[in-house]
Amino acid sequence: MFEQVEGLLAEHARLQDELADPALHADAARAKRVNRRYAELSKIKAAHEQWQQLGDDLEAARELAKEDEAFAEEIPALEQGLAEAQEKVRRLLIPRDPDDARDVILEIKGGEGGAESALFGADLLRMYMHYAESKGWKTEILEKDESDLGGYKNVQVAIKSNAGDPSQGVWAHLKYEGGVHRVQRVPVTESQGRIHTSTTGVLVYPEVDEPEEVEINQNDLKIDVYRSSGPGGQSVNTTDSAVRITHLPTGIVVAMQNEKSQLQNRDAAMRVLRARLLAKQQEEAAAEASAHRSSQIRTMDRSERIRTYNFPENRIADHRTGYKSYNLDQVMNGALDPVIESCIRTDEEDRLQALGQ
Questions:
Q1: How are beta strands 179-185 and 305-310 bridged, if at all?
Q2: Which residue windows does the record flag with biased composition (Low complexity) (predicted)?
Q3: Strand order, beta sheet including 196-206
Q4: Can you list the pairs that 34-37 forms with residues at least 24 positions away whose Cβ atoms lie under 8 Å?
Q5: Distance in angstroms (rounded) separating the CA atoms of residues 152 and 234
Q6: Which CATH number describes the domain made up of 104-352?
Q7: CB–CB of 159/287 below 8 Å?
């Protein structure tokens, strides 16, 4: 299992030399990729050095214990520490998702339940915004379609991180959120106090770092401009600032009207289109190599029911990992870490099993 460490340490040394070369920083995109990889390998290097040091300490303690029994008391703690360090290295050697360091575009769409689904969509958006704030991430609403009661029929938000460590990237955490989120509660529109079940869909796309990553032929785009409108058809402005872009080869349609500027709406639409095209390419690649899928926890089936939010019981349950907790009120205020950590752990176990480790 540890044979590959030597190769990774050699790569770490090469990247260290490369980062010291001023020429690298003339290419911002490449410098960003090198920094990400260097941060990832630095964690492996540090963990490997700790494992080696504990191994040396344990060997020394066993030798000294032959002459002085006092050293024998240190052996159990050193053995436990060595086992923990070995497990840490083993997990760090799991091949990472290459997109983990990417920022994301997260989309929340109304599902079954009409007005209640849209209201829950607003609750989910608030939950993700609070979670992002707790991580020090930046958020930007790209597009929103509000319902009459104050919910969202559809809302798209870009979430960005400045973390150099891929394991702390936005995609590394939020990629598990895609799917159907089910809510059980008494809707505000319910006059008899009955509990209803509604659903809201969440889509998560890794954002494209550089436009060149996803090649788009301008001849493949159909671009329409029209006048923005709000809830109930109320006019938002009197200019044709809203933009709808259709990618003809795939049929993907992106519409934006959040900004008053047609140029801003077009730029936002292109960001979302690139992200959706990148996701489509990755889904097709995963389908072709389904026997080697890197994760069973993050399926490509966007119709999958992944989580239930039961308000009467203050309970949240993730159906993929078996996680269950009775602190839904805290989760809805952004305390998502334990839920997402359960997804990360399950994902790692799937990867380890796939590697036969």
A1: parallel
A2: 287-296
A3: 138-146, 152-160, 104-110, 196-206, 179-185, 305-310, 315-318, 324-325
A4: 35/164, 36/101, 36/164, 36/165, 36/166, 37/11
A5: 16
A6: 3.30.70.1660
A7: no
Q: Decide if 91 contacts 348 (C-beta within 8 A).
A: yes
Judged by DSSP in three states, 107 sits in strand
| DSSP letter (8 states) at residue 251 | T
In this predicted model, what pLDDT tens digit does every residue of 73-115 receive, in sequence order? 999 999 999 999 998 888 888 877 888 888 999 999 988 888 8
The encoded tokens of residue 144 equal 């929103």
The token duo for 143 is: 């597009």
Longest alpha-carbon distance in the chain: 90
- How confident is the model over 323-355, as pLDDT tens digits? 999 999 999 999 999 999 999 999 888 887 776
Instruction: Cite the DSSP H helix spans in 150-224.
Output: 170-174
Asked if residues 97 and 172 have their Cβ atoms less than 8 Å apart, the reply is yes
